[in-house]
Amino acid sequence: GFETLPWACRFTEWGRKATVLGTKGSILAAVTPPAKTPKAFAALQGLLGVFPNVAQSPTNLGISLRNPGAVIHPGVMYGRWCSEKWDGKPVAEKPLFYQGVEDFSESVLLGLTNEVQAVKKKMEAMIPGLDLKDAVDLKQWYM
């Protein structure tokens, strides 16, 4: 599994065409079973080319908990469309995803990322040797 997609993309024609806006410099990946890691990584890097560099994560769980999309997408959507922020009336034009993110949405995002970190800490405490070092919070992921 990957922590995120190797490219930043946007649909240009829904379900038919997308534009690649950029290639990420590096991404984390994990392989199950771990014994297959060297062969899988060689194949993945060969398919992707030089960039992004595919770096090894010890567990799929760690990179799944790290995935920023699992926090950002529902957090931003809730921050925009929850009953506290939206009156239920149609909007004049399609809003851009990140425009309009404000203090309320920030508090939702912080709450979600903090919840993921609490789950990570509890799992590490319950399961000796579980390595979830790659499950970082949003600020660490973006910085």
From TrEMBL:
UniProt cross-references to InterPro entries, sorted A to Z: 6-PGluconate_DH-like_C_sf, 6PGD_dom2, Opine/Lysopine_DH
Domain of life: Eukaryota
PANTHER family in the record: BLR6086 PROTEIN, OPINE DEHYDROGENASE DOMAIN-CONTAINING PROTEIN
Protein name as catalogued: Uncharacterized protein
Organism: Strombidinopsis acuminata
